[in-house]
Amino acid sequence: VSTEFSVTKIALKGERFVLECIVYGMPVPKITLRKKGVHMILGQVTGNARRHYIPKFTANHAGKYKCKATDTSGRTDTSTTIVRMEAKPEWITRPQDTIAGVNSNTTLRCHASGAPRVFYQWYCNGQPLVTSQRHILHQGDLILKELRYSDGGMYQCVVTNTHGQLIASAELTVAGTRAPEASKNALVDSTVTLHCQPSGNPKPMVRWRKGSVYLSSGPRYQFLTSGDLKISNVTSLDSGRYTCEVSNRLGSASRTGRLNVQGKACM
Description:
The chain is mainly β. It has three domains: 2-86, Sandwich (Immunoglobulin-like); 94-176, Sandwich (Immunoglobulin-like); 178-262, Immunoglobulins (Immunoglobulin-like, Sandwich), CATH 2.60.40.10. Helix content is 0%, strand content 53%. The chain has no helices and 24 strands. The protein has strands at 9-12, 17-22, 30-35, 44-46, 49-54, 63-70, 76-93, 98-101, 106-108, 111-115, 119-124, 127-128, 135-138, 141-144, 153-161, 164-175, 184-187, 192-194, 205-210, 213-214, 221-223, 229-231, 240-248, 251-262. The strands form six sheets. Strands 1, 3, 6, 7 and 10 form a five-stranded mixed sheet that branches. Strands 8-16-15-11-12 form a five-stranded mixed sheet, with no helix packed on it. It is found in: Cell membrane. One of its GO terms (cellular component) is plasma membrane. This is Ig-like domain-containing protein. InterPro entries: Ig-like_dom, Ig-like_dom_sf, Ig-like_fold, Ig_I-set, Ig_sub, Ig_sub2, Striated_Muscle_Regulatory.
């Protein structure tokens, strides 16, 4: 029996595999091929070789095989080999599009099977993600802590082993509210707009107040669709601290700024 038969062999899960036993001798010896625990003779003989064809290799095909050559005088030679199954990466859990609140924690899940074992690499907006105290890689999962708006983006989980690679993408939306400060100078009798420009998902509700008094829409106060506050015919009484409050079901935020009203310039 050829010495090559005794070398351990690797078969890929789900793929075609051929186990071949070559023998030498004249006339050609009788060749038998069996799997340990299975009595039946496997494969077909062509010339001085017996070949066992497996269309789709499974775990049941893995194990120890014995090839035996018997010449016309009854002398025998045997050799054994081990066939191990390995596998390309296969998905168990792919990352999913996720919406999470600002300052919260979330996990993008990524699990795959494979043999030899698989390795995971995460990317954010096309750049390799560097782990930190806020970005933790745990058995394929990406744990993001104390979310910031800058954490939002497109994430990719890349899974590899020696036989292949898998890639899956998911979008992380960091939701909540934020409002920049609204501080401005204005002249008496002018029109001024105090900027709030809230952002968030779901779209936040906006309320304005001066000091502790909430403002209502009227002849001089106009609430713009952008969330800004427009004040017409400004007077000195409009000076003071204005607060923009924004909220949705995921949280709330506020920013306060001061409006300074100055008298008209004299010519």
